[in-house]
Amino acid sequence: MSMAHPSGEQFTISSSGFQAVITSVGASLRSLTFNGKPMIDSFLIDEIRPAFHGAPLAPWPNRIADGRYTFRGQTYQVALTEPERGNALHGLVCWDEWSLEQGGADRVRLSTVIAPQAGYPHRVKVTTEYLLSGSGLVWTVTAQNLGGSVAPVGLGTHAYLRPHAGAVDDWCLALPAAQVLDVDPHRLLPRQWHSADSFPPSAPFGFVSGKGLDGMVVDHCFSLIDGQPGVAKLTNIVTGEAVTMTWDATLCPWVQVCTSDFDGTSHFRTGLAVEPVTCPPNGFNSGEGVAELEPGEELSISLSLSCNYGEICGS
After folding, report:
1. Radius of gyration of the chain (CA)
2. Confidence class for position 91, pLDDT limits 50, 70, 90
3. Less Cβ around it within 10 Å: N or C end of the chain?
4. Domain at 10-311, CATH from 2.70.98.10, 3.90.1010.10, 2.40.50.140, 3.40.50.2300
5. 168 three-class SS
6. How deeply is 250 buried, as exposed, middle or buried, from its count of CB atoms within 10 A (0-12, 13-18, 19+)?
7. Is the sign of the CA dihedral 91, 33, 213, 230 positive or negative?
8. Helix or strand holding residue 284 (H, E)
9. How confident is the model at residue 3 (pLDDT cuts 50, 70, 90)?
C-alpha cells in the first residue's frame, strides 16, 4: 500500500500555459506556474505544508488573542494553535481533509464542514474553488451558515507570491495601503493604526508607488486607501517579471503582508505572503469586519492572480 502525501490528494488543473496544483489537506494552492515558471512560493509534494502556504482561512483569519472571544454576550474559548504566542491562528479548516465537489481540466472545487464545537458552536460549510483561464487564476472562498443560529465569520487567503526568480530582497511591492497596524513584537497582536507613509519611523513602508523590499521585515496588516481597488503587484527588480493579485476591496478592505522571515527553513524570504482578509487581526474581539451570518446566509470572497511573464522578452 502506498503512503499518502502529507498534503493529501493532489489536483492538477491547467489552461493556456497556466498550471496549478491544489491539495486535499487544507484545500491549499500548492503551486501555480506559467509556462513552468513559478507565480507563488510552492511547497514540495512530500512536505508538510509550511506556514499556511496557499491555504483558505475560515472562520477567522489571523489571530484571536488567547483564543478567547465574546459573541452576542457569550464568551468562547478555542484551541491555541499558536501556543508560543498564546493565540488561535487562521481558523479551523487549514488541516481538514477537504472533499472534492467538482473537478475538471481547468477547475476544481473542494469543501469542508466545520462541526459545532465548544469554542465555535456553529455548523459552517466552507467551499473553495480554483479556476484557470488565459488570464490566470481566480480563487474563490465561500462560507455558508448551515446551522440554526447566527455565526461570526471572517475569511481570507494565504498565498505567498513569487515573481519567478530571486528572493524577497530582489523584489518591489506596489500596494495602495493607507494605514498599517502596529503589533506587539512578541505576540503579533494589534496595538495601533498608523499612516503607512510614516510608519515605522525609521523606514516607512509607503508601498503606494512601489518600494523595494531589500532588508525590509514585514508582518503587518494594512488597510487600503478608500475607493482604491484591491491590487498588489510584486515585481522582480532585475528581470521586470511581475505577479499581480487583485480582489474586491469592499469585501476585503484589509490585507496582511509577510516577508516570510522563517529562520532555519527552506522558505526563508522565498515568497511574499499577500493575504486579503474580511476582518483585521483579533477581529473576533474587536468585531471589526466580522460578518454575522444568519442561518443559510453566505459570505464569499474572490481574488485573481496573473503575471506578465509572456510579455517579458526571453521569459
Report:
1. 19
2. very high
3. N
4. 2.70.98.10
5. helix
6. exposed
7. negative
8. helix 283-286
9. low
Give the Cα separation of 156 and 276 in Å (integer).
Answer: 6
Integer Cα distance of 13 and 208 in angstroms: 34
Q: What amino acid occupies position 305? A: L
Bigger pLDDT: 311 vs 82: 82
- Asked if 125 contacts 58 with a C-beta cutoff of 8 angstroms, the reply is no
Contact 57, 156 (CB under 8 A): yes
d(CA 151, CA 157): 20
Is 170 within 8 Å of 216 (Cβ atoms)? no
Q: Is the pLDDT of residue 276 over 60?
A: yes
> What is the domain partition of the chain in residue ranges?
10-311
DSSP calls for 184-226:
-TTT--EEEEEETTT-STTS----TT-EE-TT---EEEEEEPT
Residue 250 vs residues 164, 258, 283: alpha-carbon distances, Å? 30, 22, 17
Grid cell in block for residue 216: 525590509
Residue 9 φ/ψ region, left for φ over 0, alpha for ψ in the -120 to 50 degree band, beta for the rest: beta
**pLDDT for residue 314:** 47
pLDDT in tens, 195-250: 999 999 999 999 999 999 999 999 999 999 999 999 999 999 999 999 999 999 99
